[in-house]
Amino acid sequence: MVKTGLSKQKLFGMIALSMGLVTQEQLQECLDIQRDSLLPRQLGGVMMSRGYLTEAQVREVLAVQGKTGETTSLPGSKSERKRLLGQILVERGYIDQDTLTAVLKRQELLRKSGIRPRIGELLIAIGKITHGQLSEALQMQVTA
């Protein structure tokens, strides 16, 4: 059974499942990733990052979801991409999801100590990305 605390997330996932776009296991995996993420992530965006849905399929699900009275922005829209530098780095293959999760946890711990590092600075400091990779990802974030 799919477990989720937010009806909008469940609705998106249940629609994708009922349309045959994802399996029960894929849906649960994405819900778990979404739940464990330190940054708010839309379920469609998680499904796209895992390769389970294309952007066109997310739009289809959102169209069905809109008919039920639920509204949300498309994962990957300009406002969504602007705040997900880490996801851009994952999508480009510069880091993996585990690295992103670990760095976000470290960032959160540092913030609790009054230090406000940027994710890109942390990734460079630990040797996971180069300045050029960060620059490219930031450019993608700005032009998205």
Task: Characterise the protein shown here.
The protein starts with 6 loop residues before the first helix and ends with a helix. The chain has helices at 7-18, 24-36, 43-49, 55-67, 78-82, 85-91, 97-112, 119-125, 131-143. It has 144 residues and is mainly α. The protein is 65% helix and 0% strand. It has 2 domains: 7-67, no CATH class; 84-143, no CATH class. Residues 1-9, 68-73 and 75-81 have low confidence and may be disordered. α1 (7-18) crosses α4 (55-67).
* Order of SSEs: HHHHHHHHH
Q: How does the helix and strand content classify structurally?
A: mainly alpha
How many helix segments? 9
Number of E strands: 0
Total domain modules? 2
How would a textbook summarize the main sheet?
A: none
Q: How much beta, percentage-wise?
A: under 5%
Summarize the amount of helix as a percent range.
55-70%
Low-pLDDT segments, ≥5 res: 1-9, 68-73, 75-81
| Rg of Cα set | 16 Å
Average pLDDT level: 79
Shape: elongated
From the N-terminal CA to the C-terminal CA, the straight-line distance is: 36 Å
